[in-house]
Design a protein that fits this description.
Layout (H helix, E strand, L loop, with lengths): L7 H17 L20 H12 L5 H13 L6 H19 L1
Length: about 100
Protein backbone atom coordinates (compact mmCIF):
# COMPACT_ATOMS: atom_id res chain seq x y z
CA UNK A 1 0.00 0.00 0.00
CA UNK A 2 1.46 3.33 -1.04
CA UNK A 3 0.85 6.41 1.03
CA UNK A 4 1.00 9.54 -1.06
CA UNK A 5 0.72 13.24 -0.44
CA UNK A 6 -2.97 13.36 -1.32
CA UNK A 7 -4.27 13.76 2.22
CA UNK A 8 -3.38 16.35 4.79
CA UNK A 9 -0.35 17.72 2.93
CA UNK A 10 -2.43 18.50 -0.13
CA UNK A 11 -4.96 20.33 2.03
CA UNK A 12 -2.23 22.37 3.73
CA UNK A 13 -0.64 23.21 0.38
CA UNK A 14 -4.00 24.37 -1.01
CA UNK A 15 -4.58 26.61 1.99
CA UNK A 16 -1.11 28.13 1.69
CA UNK A 17 -1.58 28.69 -2.04
CA UNK A 18 -4.93 30.42 -1.45
CA UNK A 19 -3.36 32.67 1.16
CA UNK A 20 -0.49 33.56 -1.15
CA UNK A 21 -2.89 34.28 -4.01
CA UNK A 22 -4.94 36.55 -1.80
CA UNK A 23 -1.90 38.51 -0.69
CA UNK A 24 -0.33 38.67 -4.16
CA UNK A 25 -3.47 40.11 -5.72
CA UNK A 26 -3.34 42.99 -3.28
CA UNK A 27 -6.79 42.31 -1.97
CA UNK A 28 -7.44 44.53 0.97
CA UNK A 29 -10.35 44.56 3.28
CA UNK A 30 -12.79 47.23 2.32
CA UNK A 31 -14.51 49.16 4.96
CA UNK A 32 -17.92 50.56 4.44
CA UNK A 33 -19.37 53.46 6.31
CA UNK A 34 -22.96 52.95 7.25
CA UNK A 35 -25.00 55.81 8.52
CA UNK A 36 -27.71 54.60 10.81
CA UNK A 37 -30.14 56.37 13.01
CA UNK A 38 -29.08 56.57 16.61
CA UNK A 39 -31.09 54.58 19.08
CA UNK A 40 -31.81 55.69 22.61
CA UNK A 41 -32.27 53.08 25.29
CA UNK A 42 -33.78 53.96 28.64
CA UNK A 43 -33.05 51.68 31.58
CA UNK A 44 -35.45 51.80 34.48
CA UNK A 45 -34.28 52.74 37.95
CA UNK A 46 -35.18 49.24 39.19
CA UNK A 47 -32.95 47.66 36.55
CA UNK A 48 -30.10 50.01 37.45
CA UNK A 49 -30.46 49.14 41.12
CA UNK A 50 -30.54 45.42 40.33
CA UNK A 51 -27.35 45.73 38.26
CA UNK A 52 -25.60 47.54 41.11
CA UNK A 53 -26.73 44.91 43.62
CA UNK A 54 -25.62 42.02 41.39
CA UNK A 55 -22.18 43.51 40.73
CA UNK A 56 -21.56 44.56 44.34
CA UNK A 57 -22.62 41.31 45.98
CA UNK A 58 -20.10 38.45 45.65
CA UNK A 59 -21.42 35.00 44.98
CA UNK A 60 -21.55 32.50 47.84
CA UNK A 61 -19.63 30.03 45.69
CA UNK A 62 -16.76 32.42 44.91
CA UNK A 63 -14.45 31.13 47.71
CA UNK A 64 -15.01 27.52 46.61
CA UNK A 65 -14.43 28.35 42.97
CA UNK A 66 -11.24 30.25 43.79
CA UNK A 67 -9.96 27.37 45.93
CA UNK A 68 -10.58 24.89 43.12
CA UNK A 69 -8.89 27.17 40.57
CA UNK A 70 -5.81 27.48 42.78
CA UNK A 71 -5.66 23.72 43.35
CA UNK A 72 -5.92 23.01 39.62
CA UNK A 73 -3.22 25.57 38.79
CA UNK A 74 -0.94 24.19 41.52
CA UNK A 75 -1.54 20.62 40.39
CA UNK A 76 -2.89 19.61 43.79
CA UNK A 77 -6.53 19.14 42.78
CA UNK A 78 -7.62 15.53 43.24
CA UNK A 79 -10.64 13.92 41.69
CA UNK A 80 -12.70 11.56 43.81
CA UNK A 81 -14.22 8.82 41.64
CA UNK A 82 -16.41 7.79 44.58
CA UNK A 83 -17.96 11.27 44.86
CA UNK A 84 -18.52 11.40 41.11
CA UNK A 85 -20.14 7.94 41.09
CA UNK A 86 -22.34 8.79 44.09
CA UNK A 87 -23.44 12.04 42.43
CA UNK A 88 -24.26 10.23 39.20
CA UNK A 89 -26.25 7.57 41.03
CA UNK A 90 -28.12 10.21 43.03
CA UNK A 91 -28.96 12.15 39.84
CA UNK A 92 -30.22 8.98 38.13
CA UNK A 93 -32.31 8.06 41.17
CA UNK A 94 -33.79 11.56 41.30
CA UNK A 95 -34.60 11.42 37.61
CA UNK A 96 -36.21 8.00 38.00
CA UNK A 97 -38.35 9.23 40.90
CA UNK A 98 -39.33 12.32 38.96
CA UNK A 99 -40.40 10.43 35.84
CA UNK A 100 -42.36 7.71 37.63
Amino acid sequence: MKIGNNGYNQYVNNVRQNQENTHSKGLAKTTETVNEESVTVDISDAAKQLAKTKSAEPSAMTPNVEAIKKAVLNGTYTVSPEKIANGMMQAMNNKREFTE
